[in-house]
Amino acid sequence: MALRVDYISLGPLQANCVMVFDPDTKDTLIFDPGGDLDYLETYILRMGYIPAAIILTHGHFDHIMAVPGLKEKYGLEVYAMEKEEILLSDPMQNLTYDMGSPLSLKADKWIRDKEELEIKGIKFRAMLTPGHTQGSGCFYFPDDEFLVSGDTLFKGSVGRTDFPTGSTPAMIDSVKNILFKLPEETLVYPGHEGVTTIGFEQKFNFITQY
Questions:
Q1: Whose CA is closest to 151, among 122, 175, 177?
Q2: CATH code of the domain occupying 4-93+108-209
Q3: Looking at the predicted structure, is the pLDDT value of residue 1 above 70?
């Protein structure tokens, strides 16, 4: 089975909602549904995706605002890294309070670092990558050589570290000592803007100077 990846930008900050799906069954993992619920539901219907789970790379408002509606419509379970539990539950820390729409979330499944997961036959590995938040996670699909990186790694950049539970030293360590250990050909689907590769980031990302 060769998985496919699709993504659309949602919400006021145009965060990428990444959809990883089996092209034969259309079973789909939905990463970071951050807003524009009606548009997202219409897109899912038009593409024929069958939502199988919601997976969060981290708990900030621009990655979670469509979670309650999507969860209710499709009866989905929500997955997140266990170290993100406090931030997800606290509207002040997840910044939904600042946006005027306080939201407290609790995952149905809390994920551990290096945990191997399988949902509807789709296999992947969780990687705890603190820095943007203390419970930020990336999700690696080794058989298909791609990574969903959330706001940890961008093309040419990394996520900001000045929000609650953020840490610049942790970000540097996560990117250089965890993500940059992946194969160079690994495709990276970040939380904002375009796709990149681990090899490109090893050469050109500004964080290499640290």
A1: 175
A2: 3.60.15.10
A3: no
